[in-house]
Predict the structure.
Amino acid sequence: MHHVNPKATLAEAYESIKTYFDYDAFYFNDWTSTTLNGVRRENPDKTLEEAVELLVEKLDLCQRALAPHFNGRASLNTAIVSACSKSPEMRETIMEVGPSTSFETLVTGLRRRAAFLQWEAVDRQESRSRPQRVVGKCFICRKKNCRSCNHSEEDRREARELLDRHQHIPDKAFRAFLIDYENSPIISR
């Protein structure tokens, strides 16, 4: 502790240590160089949503440590927009809400976007793990490589009535079900 006078009082030692480690240039450097991508690199175990929270907290802390002319939500908004502008995931949100919006609206937009991207990534992973039914079969005769459009109108009507006895499905939903079941976009009405 070469920067502290050995004969200093506790208050003087505290002030000396604070001056040595806690200076405006340090916080200003953090204030201007912090990015969402950097926060994500530093915290690879965090989700995008958690990284957005860490970014906002870090910039808020830096702002409080900086000189008074950095105070105010407008300065914090500008720093957050700057930190997120190089992140392709957040660029769209930044453009939508804009830098002149309120702090709450900006942060809420970023949180919402991060949550959506997280949900989308999980949904993609789950859909890849589900087995895909490749070969469809006819709804009427249950044979592969046959489709209900190959059967007579009477056969189709009877099959639909049989289904309706157990559960009523609107026409639009039934057509969607048939496309999926037969794995075929060709459906006659």
Q: What stands out?
A: The radius of gyration is 30 Å.
